[in-house]
């Protein structure tokens, strides 16, 4: 009985300190806002609204960062009264350094007047290395703490996560009482991961020892089930959700539908009951695809006519790119149509050119293996490897090639394929993933490229392209370019944001 009283007292004390802390943070927020407006020397401070972007790795210079900076540039253009806040863990860089890197890397001009960085000190808590075991759980708890730090430095008027830290949503909604939204590149956990543990299949996050032992597997299943429950609950806190591809949409949509009645019922008798009660008025039923913008300005200038009979692959020499399949496909076309092997290079002879980066010893060994395979297939004289090509050298190949080849299975996106199309190179890709569903899709009811699955079908697609009558060849290249440039343009990106309805969540 005494023990129970002590426990109740401790719980009460813990809740009391949390609520006191929350109250203090909320009270101080007006000062935080004022300090930022003073620092930016903002005219008309009372008109300003704060939109916070949670992007702890904002200085990384990858595809996710292009999305972030393009979105902020859009806000600066369309919503001049908004102050964009970036929650960043890049404490080793200054605002000026980050902005000049954005300019150099993406050629995006941002105005420093309506942009402010809130630097976070606990980013190490979301790093893989901080959590060698239970990585998902550890990182998620870490992100909750990081969001707490962020909110204690500034509560924005609208919070947008652009890096996939959905577990921050509860903190922001509870502590900040402001709407949240997200642009999701990749689901933290997917329903098929759960299915795989359930059916005990081996997979990379599911090591052999675990899939062969029943008890461990049950434990892991429970872990994933709990995790999925909280992840789905977190995502449902969002007022609007955007995703970068149809692949991600399928996953996010199925997670939004995920329910677990048993866990729901259990929550009614714990202090976490608020998880059930705290729901925004309108949870989106599904996520909206907003394609990330690609910079295709350079390639879209290449001439469409006078292409060499070059089949071009642009891909790092990583195993999943499946370069061996490219050699087999090329071997198949030379076997079925030996005339493609005759003549001079640069003239009637067809060549396969593999442009790609080799990052380390494994990649280098893979390249050696591919060279050996080309010899073994008797096609080595027609195959050229271009390792670690510079960007201008790659552009040069894009301006000359006829066909762009990609053999990766279930690729989520494939920016190289967008680049092929913008450059006027006809894509021939594996019939799966982003290349099938998002990129090489009909435009105006007409095809923009080819899909294949086996060496023979790839070979047929090559043959089709190589024998197109000139006017059809030109029309296809033109169509592929128009589609890619338009579909992955900044304007289309902006339209997607507009249609996501995010503006409704700004305070009026
Ligand atoms: C979406 O994001 C994931 C994870 O960063 C990435 O692998 C994929 O290529 C992206 N898709 C698009 C369309 O950019
Ligand atoms: C390619 O670049 C990597 C590092 O970026 C380097 O280690 C490798 O040796 C280079 N390979 C060649 C063939 O130039
Ligand atoms: C998006 O909305 C803003 C504000 O209403 C408008 O100025 C802009 O032109 C829109 N952009 C597109 C591409 O529709």
Automatic annotation (TrEMBL):
For this protein, what reaction is catalysed?
A: an alpha-D-Man-(1->3)-[alpha-D-Man-(1->6)]-beta-D-Man-(1->4)-beta-D-GlcNAc-(1->4)-alpha-D-GlcNAc-diphospho-di-trans,poly-cis-dolichol + 2 GDP-alpha-D-mannose = an alpha-D-Man-(1->2)-alpha-D-Man-(1->2)-alpha-D-Man-(1->3)-[alpha-D-Man-(1->6)]-beta-D-Man-(1->4)-beta-D-GlcNAc-(1->4)-alpha-D-GlcNAc-diphospho-di-trans,poly-cis-dolichol + 2 GDP + 2 H(+)
Q: What is its membrane topology?
A: Single-pass membrane protein
**What Gene Ontology molecular function terms does this protein carry?**
glycosyltransferase activity
Question: What family is this protein classified in?
Answer: Belongs to the glycosyltransferase group 1 family. Glycosyltransferase 4 subfamily.
- Full protein name: GDP-Man:Man(3)GlcNAc(2)-PP-Dol alpha-1,2-mannosyltransferase
The task this protein performs is described as: GDP-Man:Man(3)GlcNAc(2)-PP-Dol alpha-1,2-mannosyltransferase that operates in the biosynthetic pathway of dolichol-linked oligosaccharides, the glycan precursors employed in protein asparagine (N)-glycosylation. The assembly of dolichol-linked oligosaccharides begins on the cytosolic side of the endoplasmic reticulum membrane and finishes in its lumen. The sequential addition of sugars to dolichol pyrophosphate produces dolichol-linked oligosaccharides containing fourteen sugars, including two GlcNAcs, nine mannoses and three glucoses.
Q: Where in the cell is it found?
A: Endoplasmic reticulum membrane
Superkingdom assignment: Eukaryota
Q: Where does the record place the ALG11 mannosyltransferase N-terminal domain?
A: 49-255
Extent of the signal sequence: none
Q: What is its EC number?
A: 2.4.1.131
Q: In which pathway does it act?
A: Protein modification; protein glycosylation
Glycosyl transferase family domain residues are 298-483
Q: What class of enzyme is it?
A: transferase
Q: Name one Pfam family in it.
A: Glycos_transf_1
Provide this UniProt record's keywords sorted from A to Z.
Endoplasmic reticulum, Glycosyltransferase, Membrane, Transferase, Transmembrane, Transmembrane helix
